[in-house]
Amino acid sequence: MRGGPGQSEPGQGGAEESRPGQGVRLLFFCEAVTLAHVARPLALARSLDPGPYDVHIACDPRYDAIFPDGSYRRHPLTSISGQQFLRALAKGSPLYDAETLRTYVKADLELISAVEPDVVIGDFRLSLAISARLAKVPYATITNAYWSPFAEPSYRVPDLPFARVLGPGLGQLLFNAVRPLAFALHTRPLNRVRREHGLKDLGFNLGETYTNADLTLYSDVPELIPTRPLPAHHQYIGSLSWQPEIPKPPWWDNIPQDRPAVYVTLGSTGAAELLPRILEILAPMPVTVLAATAERVKLGSVPENAFVADFLPGSDAAQRASLVICNGGSPTTTQALQAGVPVIGIASNLDQHLNMSYIERRGAGLTLRAERHRDSALVEAVNRLLRERAYREQAAAVKAQMEIYRPERLFPELIASLI
After folding, report:
1. pLDDT at residue 242, rounded to an integer
2. Domains in the chain, ordered, with CATH?
3. Angstrom distance (rounded) from CA 90 to CA 363
């Protein structure tokens, strides 16, 4: 391990000089509760010139399939299941309890000791705010700017049990009242384990809990998700996008070109049960549908204007589309906006609603509530985004801004500042 027990404050890394001839050793921690938290570290690792870096990636083995054979030095790392994570989201409960975080810290420290990295990089591995400081290794975290303590988001009530009973209107009023207390409860487990290790509390700010690191990297662009002036150790790195290395389906080269294409995917965290109904709604419309089931729903029949596969290369599908319909989460909306394509987000959880609120504010998409699905609302949204030129113009403007921020250029510069 590159140091003894202790604590480094933001902007004050504790690494020694990297080993001569071996490059800077980077250890990426993927918190495998959703694909996004694995895909972004992988995208960032892929952006690096391999020459100057010795890259190690720690990830739960359940995501082994997304890593090319022989790519990087890999290490098994246990994460809670995606089902457990999504259940907590659905209830509005803290995502991790103190015991889970204690287990995580122990596993983090053992891996850091074995690998001896110059820098650790995590994506929603909250325990690294403890373990990296104890190991005195500089720590960078990847996150979205809407979770920043310097952001000014508009919080929409997510799909919580009380909101289903009360409806969005009254549910929003109650959510506004209880949100500060609920967010404070989410910070308690991490603060408790920090105190046990002699580290100071991070307070009751959920944004601080999610972004605390020596270097906080926002996988966004400020023109889409702005913040108040940032401290030096908070930096926009640009949008990180990844798609699986899978063969295209046999129908890929036979997609009709005479009408707009709509790419539909509800991903690993969306309301997959809505996919058959979405295809039925789009069936009589003058569009061609490209749909991915993510192996989460079985389709009894497929409309004539729909082309369906279990998985599709999302960036390529977005490039072929005039409109993307998804769960509103940042992975697919990033692919859409990088292609200059407006997006409909059928959102359920708070992260999806936060992400879509900024896209709506920019005029590049529309949000629908998954738990309040209405056929007429989806038809209206599809027609509006296909017909009104302003949405595509705004999506194209966001694309141009995303092209300015190049992670492959920014990340090495920022990592160098830690060592």
Report:
1. 85
2. 24-236 (3.40.50.2000), 252-403 (3.40.50.2000)
3. 28
List Cα–Cα distances, 223 to 239, 302, 366, in angstroms: 12, 39, 18
Residues 6 or more apart whose CB falls under 8 angstroms from that of 144 comprise 218, 219, 220, 225, 330, 351, 354, 355
Q: Which alpha helices (DSSP H) does 32-160 contain, by range?
A: 36-46, 82-91, 98-115, 128-135
* CA separation for the pair 350, 354 (Å, rounded): 6
Q: Render the burial of 172-185: b for 16+ CB within 10 Å, e for the rest.
A: eeebeeeeeeebee
Nearby residues of 9 by Cβ (< 8 Å), 6 or more positions away: 214
CA distance 264 to 307: 10
Residues paired with 216 in a beta bridge? 141, 234
Q: Determine how many CB atoms are found less than 10 A away from the CB of residue 337.
A: 30
Total length of the chain: 419
SS3 content of the chain, % helix, strand, coil (to 5): 45, 15, 40
Helix (H) or strand (E) holding 344: strand 343-347
Mean pLDDT, contiguous 10-residue spans, the chain (419 residues): 39 41 88 93 90 94 83 92 91 94 98 98 98 98 97 94 92 95 96 97 94 97 97 96 88 94 89 93 98 88 94 95 97 97 96 97 97 95 98 98 93 91
Rounded CA-CA distance 385/261 in Å is: 12
The CA distance from 59 to 124, in Å, is 12
Q: In this structure, what DSSP letter does residue 286 have?
A: S
Supply φ then ψ for residue 308, to 5 degrees: -125, 140
Could you tell me the pTM of the whole model? 0.91
264 backbone dihedrals φ, ψ, rounded to 5°: -120, 120
Inter-CA distances, 275 with 189, 267, 314, Å: 36, 10, 16
The DSSP output letter for 312 is: -
Residue 118: predicted pLDDT: 97
The pLDDT assigned to 319 comes to 96
CA 335 to CA 331: how far, in whole Å? 7
The span from the CA of 212 to the CA of 132, in Å, is 11
